[in-house]
Each structure stands twice: as structure tokens, then as C-alpha cells.
Design a protein that fits this description.
Elements lengths: L21 E4 L5 H10 L10 H11 L5 H10 L3 E4 L4 H12 L2 E5 L7 H4 L5 H10 L6 E5 L6 H4 L3 E7 L5 E5 L2 E4 L10
Parallel strand pairs: 3-6
Antiparallel strand pairs: 1-4, 1-5, 2-4, 3-5, 6-7
Helix pairs in contact: 1-2
Length: 189
């Protein structure tokens, strides 16, 4: 259990995203889910495993929440934020539902965990792990990029834009557009 305090009016909620806001993530995605897949196959951390395999397993077993980034982003004036514990598809759905908006995500903009690349994982599998795997504990946030200094957003990856199409999240992969359904962790199923 984690507890904390925030000054009145200082919390960044899921409900603040507005059409036209850009969608950003901290860090790289899919590594924790990649580590979980390895563990389920019976692969363990250790000297017998490659550096990439060990790093993916560590992403699963030792999550490191982005507390400092969250504090900095909150002070920068972002509009909405959530941690990526359930997976990008599910957590973006939480922001869209709470804010009454939709979203467009660019598949080629999603930053995959570097260790997935070296583990011979196909593009489709990396995309699935990043969208639906969860437990990365990176942050997903929205911001009106015109109201925030670009240096405050440096180091974060823009992966899409908030739209006025409430409840509709589209994944744009090249010329193809598909509805992105939440397929990450579902609470209370």
C-alpha cells in the first residue's frame, strides 16, 4: 500500500484531457510484459541468460515508478496523467473515459523497450507487449503543447493526440487505422 499527500488543487487527474492535447509517455514500453513471458517459459535471471533477458526479467520483478517525473510534469501544467500499470491500451482508455474524449495513437511513435529488440521479438509482438502488457510503471500523460515550454516536454515521447470522438481510440499503423480496445489488465473481471 502506498500513501501520500497533495496540496488542494495540485493533483493531476485522469479527467483533464482535452481535444487537441498531445499524448506522451515516459520511458520505453513492453519490457515488463516481455520479462513476464520469459518467466512463464521458465527462464530465470542469472549468468546463463543474456544481458537483454536479464534486463527484461528485472523490468518485471523490480518496477521503478516515475515519481520524480510525475512531480515535474505536475508542476509543468499537464492536463491528465496515469501510470502504465494496466497497459497502454487500458490506461489510455481510463483517461479517455474519465475525460470524455477519444484518442489517436501512432504505432510507429510508441517507444519499445530496447531489450525487446535484441530478444528476436517481432514488431507485432513488441507492439502487443507495449499496448497490452502493462506493469511498465511508466507515465502516460496529456498536455496542451502550446501552453507548455518544449524544454519541459523534452525527454518524453509524443505518441498521439486527444480527439473529440468520445470513447473511440484509434491506432494508426502506417496507412491502417484500427479501433484500439483495452486488452491490458482488467480489474474486477
Amino acid at each position: 500500500v502506498v500513501g501520500g499527500e497533495v496540496t488542494r488543487g495540485g493533483a493531476v487527474l485522469r479527467s483533464g484531457a482535452r481535444p487537441g492535447d498531445k499524448i506522451y509517455v515516459t520511458g520505453r514500453l513492453g519490457g515488463a510484459a516481455g520479462g513476464l513471458k520469459l518467466l512463464k517459459k521458465g527462464i530465470r535471471y542469472g549468468e546463463q541468460s543474456s544481458v537483454s533477458v536479464n534486463e527484461l526479467i528485472l523490468r518485471q520483478l523490480t518496477p521503478w515508478p516515475r515519481i520524480d517525473d510525475g512531480r515535474i510534469l505536475g508542476e509543468a501544467g499537464i492536463s491528465a496523467m496515469i501510470d502504465l500499470s494496466d497497459g497502454l491500451s487500458s490506461d489510455l482508455g481510463h483517461i479517455c473515459d474519465s475525460s470524455g474524449v477519444g484518442a489517436e495513437i501512432l504505432a510507429e511513435a510508441i517507444p519499445f523497450d530496447n531489450h525487446l529488440d535484441s530478444s528476436s521479438t517481432s514488431y507485432r509482438k513488441r507492439l502487443d507487449l507495449a499496448l497490452n502488457g502493462g506493469e511498465d510503471f511508466e507515465l502516460l500523460f496529456t498536455a496542451d503543447a502550446k501552453k507548455i515550454s518544449p524544454d519541459k516536454l523534452a525527454g518524453f515521447t509524443c505518441i498521439g493526440e486527444v480527439t473529440a470522438n468520445a470513447g473511440i481510440i484509434e491506432l494508426i499503423d502506417g496507412e491502417k487505422r484500427t479501433d484500439l480496445r483495452p486488452r491490458g489488465y482488467q480489474h474486477f473481471r
